[in-house]
Design brief:
alpha/beta; 7-stranded parallel β-sheet; two-stranded parallel ribbon; binds NADP nicotinamide-adenine-dinucleotide phosphate
Length: 355
């Protein structure tokens, strides 16, 4: 049974990756931060208390990317075959408010993890969560060959993490790969990220709980994909013979305004009646246009996205409507999404493995 260690297991991607790896028969170990309130809402449905039987294939450990000893301890204890470094202060706007902290967690945190791997001599495959924000103001479409022009403390910290990952690959022979992922969303996306902020607001407006939605720049263009498809690439990347950097995206880009049109339009509302602009959401430096050239992912891994912009908006709208007890309009849930819903039924697979 392979063992995976996931930092950021309580995040959007961490939760989907955990489901995927459990469904593939892995033992999954996750690092969570100590917090005064529960922060495991995204993984509660798959966590089993180890006291309740011997089938617990998922373990959680307290740790933090700012704490070297916690990283060394968890690596020594788990002895993982694969490490997925998904933890980060991952919010671009917040990184302008907390630049030093973002650099410490998102940038130096990756170095601490790689250094722990080097020092413990762990024979492990390492995945680094790089981002399209690295490209910043570089002209679209962006591929592995596009030079980085980071436009935020978050992107600068991720650039450091990206380069140091490459450095440990080349300098110390660590099997370290970076997925340069363009934006990916889902019903589990953090509530303050723009797509989720919109779909939650539409549902709240429809339920009579909210009057207006305050937004920043509506003209930024992003390449938005579906998170469960993207975590599958993380796993595939670590199964490949060679470590590498790989761009992942849909090759389709839309403005925030288009996402508003899609989400409000889904429930027959006009976004212009509800959306107000609040300058506090503008960033000191904006990233205008991100568009993936993911041809290498197709060539090397045979990977292609299946969920596109409209389906993504619908999946997210359906989930947020359901959360507020509202009926989804149209023909109900997107069929393709059901494939991913199956992942969290990993216990069925243990039964078949035992047989
Ligand atoms: N989603 C995207 O569109 C996208 C695109 C490209 C790259 N990425 C990167 O991919 C990774 C996963 O993204 P995501 O959307 O899943 O992010 P997310 O939902 O914000 O999750 C971030 C995770 O990191 C944890 N974390 C934050 N600070 C930490 C610290 N100091 N020590 C340990 N853990 C810490 C969080 O824990 P809490 O739950 O306690 O907060 C959470 O589990 C991130 O590195 C992100 O920057 C995301």
């Amino acid at each position: 049974m392979k063992k995976a260690l996931i930092t950021g297991i309580s995040g959007q991607d961490g939760s989907y990756l955990t489901e995927l790896l459990l469904s593939k028969g892995y033992q999954v170990h996750g690092m969570i931060r100590r917090s005064s309130t529960f922060n495991t809402g995204r993984i509660d449905h798959i966590y089993r208390d180890p006291h309740n039987g011997d089938k617990a294939r998922m373990r959680l450990y307290y740790g933090d990317l700012t704490s070297t000893d916690s990283l060394q301890n968890v690596i020594s204890e788990v002895e993982p075959d694969e490490i997925y470094n998904l933890a980060a202060q991952s919010h671009v706007r917040v990184s302008f408010d907390m630049p030093e902290y973002t650099g410490d967690v998102t940038g130096l945190g990756t170095l601490r993890l790689l250094e722990a791997i080097r020092r413990t001599g762990a024979k492990v495959r390492f995945y680094q969560a790089s981002t399209s924000e690295l490209f910043g103001s570089a002209s679209p479409p962006q591929s592995e060959a596009t030079p980085f022009e980071p436009q935020s403390p978050y992107a600068a910290a991720k650039a450091y993490a990206h380069w140091v990952t490459q450095n440990y690959r080349e300098g110390y022979g660590v099997f370290a790969s970076s997925g340069i992922l363009f934006n990916h969303e889902s019903p589990r996306r953090g509530e303050t990220f723009v797509t989720r902020k919109i779909t939650r607001a539409v549902a709240a407006i429809l339920a009579g709980k909210q009057e207006h939605l305050y937004m920043g720049n509506l003209d930024s263009k992003r390449d938005w994909g579906y998170a469960p498809e993207y975590v599958e690439v993380m796993w595939r990347l670590l199964q490949h013979d060679e470590p590498m950097d790989l761009v992942i995206g849909t090759g389709e880009s839309h403005t925030v305004r288009e996402f508003l049109e899609e989400a409000f339009g889904y429930v027959n509302l006009d976004y212009q009646d509800y959306v107000r602009i609040d300058p506090q959401y503008f960033r000191p430096t904006e990233v205008d246009f991100l568009l993936a050239d993911a041809r290498k992912a197709k060539d090397v891994l045979g990977w292609e996205p299946r969920i596109r912009f409209k389906d993504l908006a619908r999946i997210m709208m359906d989930a947020d409507l359901e959360l507020l007890g509202l009926e989804a309009p149209g023909d109900g849930k997107c069929l393709l999404a059901e494939r991913f819903d199956g992942w969290h039924r990993w216990e069925d697979q243990i039964v078949s493995m035992d047989k």
